[in-house]
Structures are given as structure tokens and as C-alpha cells.
Amino acid sequence: MEKLTYRSRMLWGEKRYHSLDYELKKSYGYKIYKLSLNGGMSCPNRDGTIGTGGCIFCSEGGSGDFAAGSGLSITQQLEEAKNRILSKLSHQEQVGYIAYFQAFTNTHAPVSYLRKLFTEAILSPDVVILSIATRPDCLGAEVISLLEELNRIKPVWIELGLQTIHENSAKFIRRGYPLSVFEQAVNRLCRTEIPVIVHMILGLPEICYCLWNI
């Protein structure tokens, strides 16, 4: 067993740490690429629900700058992104994809709209995982129920932007929710056995909000 693990690590170029790339190759047997998608949603921290300025680190494209325009259907966005990858690969090379709803807040819409977009993505034959970037304050009971339903079709990941555990730093970056909201959302997702990926900003000082106000 140890020899097999070592051989697979050599085959897939594993690093000194346990990378996600290696874990996915071990699970699926081939390379998995992440395809950024734009579901045409906004963010409660931009549309006036809780604020209008957005988080200070977020780009004009809602941190989805690698995604195609929302004017295209999800199927068209997937095909466009796949073609960019396939043009660099051998025709014989087998690959899979993560459909990644990246731009803005991807559960900030009616559940009927979310169902249409997410179902279109997850049923794409080459998509092996559906990954959804969102905010913990946009995960109501109906959304969680939809995610559970989709997770029975193929694996669903939720990516949450925590950025920092420090309340002063959170105010400085205009995150718009307290740490308790994040903790509650993670607990609800864990009960449904939906994996959570947490986005952090390393090196963000706890005192930065205090310095801003001096």
C-alpha cells in the first residue's frame, strides 16, 4: 500500500504538502480543472441589501474576472472555458471539470433561478463537482435544501469568504456580517455533509481597523 501511494505521488508530481490537485487526481484518476462561471447575480453588499460599496478587496467583476459574461448561458460558458483548456492539451488526455460559480454572491437570487443555473451546470457530462462561491448570510433554509438535492446528483462544494476572524479587520474590509453568521452557516452545511472551502486573506492585521480610525 505504501509503495502504491509513493508511486502515485511520483506519477502526479505531489509536493511536500497534500495539495488539492493531488487529492482530486487520486479520487478521479485524472486532472480536474476549475471552470469559472458567472450566474448574473449581484451581492447584498453591493445592491443595497446591506451595503453598496462592497468589500474593499473585491474587484468590479465580483472577483469573477476569469468567468465569461453572464449574457451567455451556463452551457455556453462551460464550453468556452473548456475550449481554452483543451487547446493546450493532448487530444488523448482525459480531464474533468469543476463548475465554479465565482462572480459575486451565487446564492443571492430566488431559489427557482438558482435551481435552473446549478442544475444546468451539474448535469454537464464532464462536470464532476459543482462549486459555489457565496456569503454565509445568503444561505437560507430553501437554499440549503436545494444544495442537499444537488449534492445527491454530484458532489457540491460551498466556498465562503471568511477573510478574517477578527471583527475589527472585518469592519475595515467592509465584510458586512459578524463571525457568528459564518459559524452558523458552516454548522448548517456540515450537518448536510456539504464540504466548505474557506477563503482567507493571510496577513490581514487584526488592528487595521483601529489604525484606519486613528
Low-confidence stretches: 208-212
Q: Say how many strands there are.
A: 5
Structural class: alpha/beta
Helix content: 25-40%
Biggest beta sheet summary: 5 strands, parallel
> What is the alpha-carbon Rg in Å?
19 Å
Strand arrangement across the biggest beta sheet: 1-2-3-4-5
Number of helices: 8
Termini separation comes to 59 Å
Strand content: 15-25%
Summed up, the domain count is 1
Note the main attributes of this structure.
alpha/beta, 8 helices, 214 residues, globular
Q: How would you characterize the overall build of this protein?
A:
By secondary structure, the chain is α/β, with parallel strands linked by helices. It has one domain (20-212). It has eight helices and five strands, in the order H-H-E-H-E-H-E-H-E-H-H-E-H. The chain has helices at residues 2-11, 20-28, 74-86, 111-122, 141-151, 167-172, 179-191, 208-212; strands spanning 31-37, 95-101, 127-134, 156-163, 196-200.
Helix-strand blueprint:
Blueprint: H1 2-11, H2 20-28, E1 31-37, H3 74-86, E2 95-101, H4 111-122, E3 127-134, H5 141-151, E4 156-163, H6 167-172, H7 179-191, E5 196-200, H8 208-212
Parallel strand pairs: 1-2, 2-3, 3-4, 4-5
Helix pairs in contact: 4-5
